[in-house]
Specification:
alpha/beta, seven-stranded parallel sheet, six-stranded parallel sheet, 25 helices, 38% helix, binds adenosine-5'-diphosphate, binds magnesium ion
């Protein structure tokens, strides 16, 4: 029977209304979603041991006979135990089931079962708690199934697996949600696969599956869920990973093609000496190098596409300013997009200070401005009165038109979506593009996100920076930490206190209860703990005016303490701040902690970062926090983060604007990624717009992926 992949999961056997709701929570709406819901891990239940071979602590299958009838005992309300002893040829094993009274009748004395679970107890008296069990299909002599029928065998002699068999095979482990069990999901996937085996999504052109020796879709889906061996699993995964990455890189290449063959404007290279004179410090060699590289791009006649990668505090803003100045000298406009209002505001202040004396008009555009303010800015942009506009994603609004936009800069670019970036560049005629990032992105990933871009690395800090001392503490150190704040404030220094609240005023919705706790903490700090100090609060959901007021109070030195959520993570610059305290530090990613830590140590004062661990932080999070103490090098930290957390978190889709990956992993699938890139390159050489019939499915998939209209892609 053939069933369309967009059939609702409601119509799948075993999925009722309740389970449908739960599955939707996991993002599974259709049959296609269901079969594309890949396991996060696998449990190897292929090894079946005899009792005397068992090792305490291992998770394994045991074949044994029920030596007695299961005994059910009611211990207290909510606790029923079912116990039995199972034996094989020369040893016995105690089995206990918790609150599974049905076991009493399900396991029959004298029958042989396979039990899968963790071995506890001692070697002399091994135990297993609440194992998964099923009748042994081999029944001892290994040639008869439980019901007496002969065991079917494959060519290599291994038994043909029953589709619903739970032991003696590799079992998928799915990410779950409360109310759904592995078994339910596994069964749903099983019937899903059986329903649509001939309809499975397959977007790879045959020439590519042949060239890269990829297995067929059906084999891939079957074995990624229910692998008959780990070898088959590898083959299946390879195909699916390849396909996912291939679609992505092909899409990104197509988005870019629009730009790359266009000619860019060749700007005149100025004498930057004049510009440097206006800057109060001596630029570092790394800054000068990056400026020269960007200037050469902008003078080349092809559109610049350059990534400036430099650790927090390395002085990337100066590089951006130099490029804006060069653009202005050529009579054109620049746009500078920042991820948050606070940051846009701060860039406006510091760039106005630097560029206005040189004769440039700098403007600001954010979503929270009044309609009148916005309208005036739109007009000034259109007439060319503003030379450099700084703003949030409000810049991509349709009302924004430029007289002549020649340079687009995005700060912390990976926070913007791919579409947002291209929307801004479309406001100019092949403008130059400069991207600034403090998160060290592995080169290969950068290539996917930004295209065939050039990279300048700012690997030198402005002189006089202090190494930040990092301390990992827990609740026992709380009062000492507060004393330390008082001492520093007494010396005229300022302090950040950061609370974990995942939010970003331009992108996400904060969680209300979280917001409450931040506010409450702020009240406690300002009223009870530091009644003599001036404490300010900022979070992403405050009205822009209040946020600005709090930020400026802190930036100008009026406030001693700034209690903040992660809105201050990127770029905020207050050189007098010498201490940052981060609550529940283990809830943050390491790279994020590094960004936060970069808020201090920006001036000449000795600076400290105090990381409060949560009460119940596990070993991994302690290990992670220790990385912070061990190094101040953002690149090393990113690497560790990637290792410890995996790219799913590190490059969460919100972080880089790419679609979410279901099976591919940017960190570990580099080899396949390379192949996919080559394949995409070859294919687009032959068929740049994917017009050939054999590429139709691929094209559809790409359009779905980015929800772009067909004309955008051409
Ligand atoms: P980034 O954006 O790379 O994190 P910023 O551009 O915000 O860093 O610069 C951080 C701080 O360093 C700012 O206060 C800036 O004025 C200062 N700074 C930048 N370049 C230099 C330099 N060459 N010498 C001294 N201070 C500098
Ligand atoms: Mg910055």
């Amino acid at each position: 029977m053939i069933v369309a992949l967009d059939t609702s999961i409601r119509y799948i056997k075993g999925v009722g209304e309740t389970r449908e709701k739960l599955m939707i929570k996991l993002g599974i709406h259709t049959l296609g979603d269901l079969v594309g819901y890949f396991p996060r891990a696998y449990q190897d239940r292929t090894v079946i041991k005899s009792i005397s071979e068992l090792i305490i602590g291992e998770i394994v299958c045991v074949r044994a006979m029920a030596a007695d009838k299961p005994r059910l005992s009611h211990i207290r309300k909510g606790l029923d135990l079912t116990k039995l002893r199972v034996v094989d040829d020369n040893a016995s094993l105690e089995i206990t089931f918790f609150n599974q009274p049905f076991v009493k009748d399900a396991i029959k004395q004298g029958e042989t079962y396979i039990f899968f679970g963790k071995i506890s107890g001692s070697l002399l008296r091994p135990e297993m708690n609440s194992p998964i069990f099923e009748r042994d299909l081999g029944q001892g002599d290994d040639s008869r199934q439980g019901d007496g029928s002969p065991v079917l065998r494959q060519g290599d002699g291994s038994p043909v697996l029953n589709k619903n068999q739970l032991t003696g095979r590799i079992i998928p482990v799915y990410p779950l949600t409360a109310g759904l069990s592995q078994k339910m999901l596994m069964n749903a996937v099983r019937s899903g696969l059986d329903k649509c085996a001939d309809e499975l999504p397959d977007v790879l052109p045959v020439s590519i599956t042949n060239q890269y020796k990829l297995c067929k879709t059906r084999f891939a889906f079957e074995n990624v869920h229910f692998p008959s061996s780990f070898k088959e699993l590898d083959i299946a995964r390879k195909r699916l990973i390849f396909e996912e990455l291939f679609v992505l890189v092909t899409a990104m290449k197509m988005l870019r093609e629009k730009r790359s063959d266009k000619t860019g404007r060749a700007l005149k290279t100025p004498d930057f000496g004049k510009f440097y004179k206006a800057f109060p410090y001596k630029p570092t060699n790394a800054q000068i190098r990056a400026i020269n590289e960007a200037a050469a791009d902008m003078a080349s006649g092809r559109p610049m596409n350059r990534l400036i990668q430099g650790d927090v505090g390395s002085g990337k803003t100066l590089i951006a300013a130099a490029c804006c100045w060069m653009t202005w000298l050529s009579g054109s406009q620049s746009a500078f997009m920042a991820p948050t209002e606070i940051l846009a505001k701060q860039h406006t202040d510091s760039l106005t200070e630097l560029l206005h004396p040189l004769g440039m008009q700098v403007g600001l555009l954010t979503g929270s401005m009044t309609a009148k303010g916005k309208r005036e800015t739109y007009e000034k942009l259109k007439s060319g009165e503003i030379d450099l506009i700084i703003g949030t994603h409000a810049l991509i609004s349709e009302s924004v038109e430029f007289k002549d936009l020649a340079l687009v800069i995005t700060d912390e670019q990976h926070r913007f979506g791919v579409n947002q970036r291209s929307l801004l560049t479309e406001k100019g005629d092949s403008p130059h593009v400069l991207v600034m990032s403090a998160t060290p992105i592995p080169r290969t990933l950068a290539l996917i996100i930004y295209g065939d871009l050039d990279v300048s690395i700012v690997d030198e800090m402005p002189p006089g920076r202090q190494e930040i001392k990092t301390h990992i503490v827990d609740e026992r150190h709380r009062s000492r930490a507060y004393e330390f704040i008082k001492k520093l404030a007494g010396e005229g220094r300022q302090v950040y206190i950061i609370c974990p609240m995942v939010e970003d005023d331009s992108i996400e919705n904060p969680d209300e209860s979280n917001l409450k706790s931040v506010k409450k903490y702020y009240e406690t700090l300002s009223r009870e703990i530091f009644p003599d100090l001036k404490v300010e609060l900022v979070h992403g959901k405050m009205p822009a005016k209040k946020k600005d007021a709090a930020m400026s109070a802190f930036a100008s030195g009026d406030a001693d303490i700034l209690v903040a959520t992660t809105v201050v993570e990127v770029g905020v610059d207050v050189p007098n701040a010498a201490l940052i305290i981060i609550e529940n530090a283990d809830r943050f990613g390491l790279s994020q902690l590094h960004q936060l830590r970069g808020r201090v140590g920006r001036g000449r004062h000795e600076s400290h970062c105090v990381l409060f661990r949560s009460e119940n932080s596990g070993e991994i999070s302690i290990e992670r926090l220790n990385v912070m103490r061990a190094t101040n090098d953002g690149f090393k930290i990113a690497e560790e983060d990637l290792k410890l957390r995996g790219p799913g978190d590190f490059f969460g889709s919100k972080q880089h604007g790419l679609p979410e990956m279901h099976i591919a992993n940017f960190a570990t699938d580099m080899l396949v990624l390379n192949q996919a890139q080559n394949a995409a390159h070859e294919l687009l050489e032959k068929d740049p717009a994917l017009k050939a019939p054999e590429n139709r499915k691929l094209k559809n998939q790409i359009e779905r992926l980015f929800e772009l209209s067909a004309d955008k892609m051409n």
